[in-house]
Specification:
Elements: E1 2-6, H1 13-24, E2 28-30, H2 31-40, H3 44-55, H4 61-72, E3 81-84, H5 90-102, E4 109-114, H6 117-125, E5 127-130, E6 136-138, E7 157-158, H7 165-179, H8 182-188, E8 192-196, H9 201-218
Parallel strand pairs: 1-3, 1-4, 2-3, 4-8
Antiparallel strand pairs: 5-6, 5-7
Helix pairs in contact: 1-9, 2-3, 4-5, 6-7
This protein binds BIS(adenosine)-5'-pentaphosphate.
BIS(adenosine)-5'-pentaphosphate binds next to α1, α2, α3, α6 and β6.
Binding site for Zn(2+): 130, 133, 150, 153
Pfam families: ADK, ADK_lid
Binding site for AMP: 31, 36, 57-59, 85-88, 92, 160, 171
Length: 219
């Protein structure tokens, strides 16, 4: 399946992505994770992207489009993938359409997650991530077994630089002005599935996976 997860920052895209890729055995492609890795390794792309990311602004389209094109060329994407956090602008969506049409592999579904803004701010300001693998936890909603230590690799949990309230509000504003219009873009293509992401993590996963399975059965 070729899938996209669309939704505001903090709505739970990364959390749900982990469960969806396990259910459908496709690679998880998160442009946020790819960019954070580039920043950490101080690559030329990382050095360009850092200032935008710290302020909660979008990294320029050309940089992100090139990263995704390169990643989609990898052999593990031939049978499907889950894009998380890409596309975020109409220009990115159009670039993706043209790459996929060359491969004769259109998007099957765009899963749009939504939740109210106060809930999102609570989720992001309370998020802690593993300093080694990047896995997300939450100080109230998703605690590790040992306080401040990642369950998987025992890395220390830290707060992302862009998870302070001021930057979170800017990220939400950027979503409203630049990304939200993709809901109409994909509604017009008849591939949008909307899911209320305001509830419990497991029930949201079940709803998404059931909807995708019934769609897969029809195709
Ligand atoms: P990116 O990493 O993509 O960040 P984002 O879209 O802002 O999304 P987040 O990772 O913050 O949130 P999420 O929806 O994955 O939520 P999560 O599951 O962690 O992008 C970062 C930056 O990179 C951007 O600002 C931009 O600068 C740049 N960038 C990336 N892609 C780009 C692109 N295509 N173009 C240009 N620039 C780009 O959950 C959040 C918290 O809530 C966690 O603590 C989790 O445990 C908790 N939680 C999740 N679900 C629930 C639930 N149901 N109930 C309670 N708690 C929950």
């Amino acid at each position: 399946m070729r899938l996209i997860l669309l939704g505001p920052p903090g709505v739970g895209k990364g959390t749900q992505a982990e469960r969806i890729v396990n259910a459908f055995s496709v690679p998880h492609i998160s442009t946020g994770d790819i960019l954070r890795e580039a920043v950490k390794n101080e690559t030329p792309t990382g050095l360009k992207a850092k200032a935008y990311m710290d302020k909660g602004e979008l990294v320029p389209d050309m940089i992100v489009i090139d990263l995704v094109k390169e990643r989609l060329d990898d052999g593990d994407c031939t049978d499907g993938f889950l894009l998380d956090g890409f596309p975020r602008t109409v220009a990115q969506a159009e670039a993706l359409d043209s790459v996929l049409s060359e491969m004769n592999s259109p998007i099957d579904s765009v899963i749009q997650l939504y939740a109210d803004e106060d809930e999102i701010v609570k989720r992001l300001t309370g998020r802690r991530v593993c300093s080694i693998c990047g896995k997300a936890y939450h100080v109230m909603f998703l605690k590790p077994k040992i306080e401040n230590i990642c369950d998987d690799d025992k890395g220390a949990l830290i707060q992302r630089k862009d998870d302070n309230e001021e930057t979170v509000r800017n990220r939400l504003n950027v979503y409203e002005t630049k990304t939200k219009e993709l809901i109409d873009y994909y509604t017009d293509k008849d591939v949008l599935i909307s899911v209320d992401a305001g509830g419990a993590i497991d029930s949201i996963s079940s709803e998404i996976i059931n909807k995708l399975k019934s769609l897969d059965a029809v195709q």
